[in-house]
Amino acid sequence: MNTIKTYLTEMAIGATGCIVGYDRAYSGYTGKLIAKGLAPGIRFILIRHACSEFPLQLEVEGNLISLSKPEVDALCVEEVD
To answer: What residue ranges define each of the domains in the chain, with the CATH number in brackets?
Structure first.
């Protein structure tokens, strides 16, 4: 399994990734992300880039999760192929 560190906004729709942590600059969003099920080690599929209010939608364990821009910026991810 190869992993490539990247930003969530640079991943292609349909790509699979893994959450590796959180950006310290956006630490206020950590609790919100964990409450949404986005903890380190969780795998996800990027479903779509949506409207400006909720720019990204992920599928995590069969659930669709919409993320705001600050939440997206707070996530540190790796693309998994």
So the answer is: 3-80 (2.30.30.90)
Q: Return the bridge partners of 63, or none.
A: 60
Residue pair 16/44 in contact (Cβ under 8 Å)? The answer is: yes
**pTM of the entire predicted model:** 0.85
Strand-pair partners of 4: 79
pLDDT digits (tens, 9 = 90+) for 19-45: 999 988 888 899 999 999 999 999 999
User: pLDDT for 9-22, tens place per residue?
Assistant: 889 999 999 999 99
**Pairing of the two strands 63-67 and 56-60:** antiparallel
- State the DSSP H helix or E strand holding residue 80, giving kind and residue range, or none if neither: strand 75-80
